Amino acid sequence: MQTPAKFLSGSILKHVISMSTTNAVGLIAIFMVDLADIYFISLLHDTTYTAAIGYASAILFFITAIGIGLTIANSAITSKYIGQQQHYAGRRYISHISLFTTLFSVLITFIIWLLAPRLLSYLGAENEVLTEATNYLRIIILSLPILALSMQMSASLRCFGHAKHAMYVTLLAAIVNALLDPLFIFVVGLDLQGAAIASLIARIIAFGLSVFYVAFRYKLIAFPTLSGFLMDTKIIINVAFPAILTQIATPLGNLYVTYEVAKFGTEYIAGWAIIGRLIPVAFALMFAVSGAIAPIIGQNYGANNFKRLRQILTESIKFMTTYCLVISLFLSLGQEIIVNIFNAQNETAQIIRIFCQHISITFIFTGITLVCMAFLNNLGYAKYATLLNLGKVSFGTVPFVSIGAIYFSAPGILYGQALGTIVFAAVALMLMFHILNMIETNEKADNKLEKADQSSTN
Fold first, then answer.
1. What are the tens digits of pLDDT across the range 60-78?
2. CB-CB contact of 39 with 31 (8 Å)
3. CB 183: neighbour CB atoms within 10 A?
């Protein structure tokens, strides 16, 4: 039984909201647990633990971005097949990219586990903070292959329009993690390592549910073959690697920011760790939009519906902008509540207040950039997205952050990063409209040539 390409008709805004909110509910649940980790750890009244999470999270952010890059390849190709009514090809591709993801993520896990102390020390972790961060990272990194595969299963469900069940997978992981966190941290007394163990177990359980939906309930996986895998691997590499480079560009920038913040002491790193866990919760819908619109873009691009592609871009940016404005207002008004919840003091409280009051509103431009990246990746211009994001990390982050650090210390780092984001959002938007114009022009030219050939044949 073939699943219809449901995004080729109907209200675009409704599709964007529906796909984004179901994706966001799951993301919020997961990120709320990450935020709860920081909260529970803060109750131990030891900034060493909070700082350790900050260092480890910088590397975990980098690793998770690799998994996201692979899901982009899944969404881009699978949704295009669906738009072209090639459902078996989509099912075959899902099985092969899942196999590729397994092999690739196991390799990355081994490398990170082995080099964890050295990588953390490069970021500035020392003494007891380095020890705690290493132990935490080495436990939670074991869940990377499981997490990467769960992300693939969820992306596959969204491609076929089953966003609700993709949400259930992430919700289950969050619920299990939330229940196990206080048990392992306080009752068993494992402190920071307890939080890592809870996350590992939760991801294993959620993976089981994702496999049930994809493989058994909807039968979205075709049996893999060696020849098919080798053929699809070429497609995966062409699409996934530029997407991975695009995704890891942001964590690389985050690694550099962490490195600069570390120069100003443990208190600022603790504050940066709290901000790092607050951002995904507060702006979950923003991050969800970029992933959720991928099947909508892919199906309409596969059907050569360029008018709807432009509407998807416009509606997504409008929706993103409104959402970020509302969230930044709430953060500004609730900054003291956040400071008190996490027992933040001195420099830790200072940097949290600066983020809530001044920096959060600039996430409008982060959202615009994410939408443009989603379009570039799903329209076959992943290399452009890579170059754009690498430019943002280098020219849009390093000089702005470095100058901010020199003249305004740790707060200047946040201001510098925000300014770079604004500049590159404008660049991304101009590039996106140029690409859409170019694709539409080329398609019209191809149609004219095709009609001319038919006329000469007749």
1. 877 877 887 788 788 778 8
2. no
3. 13
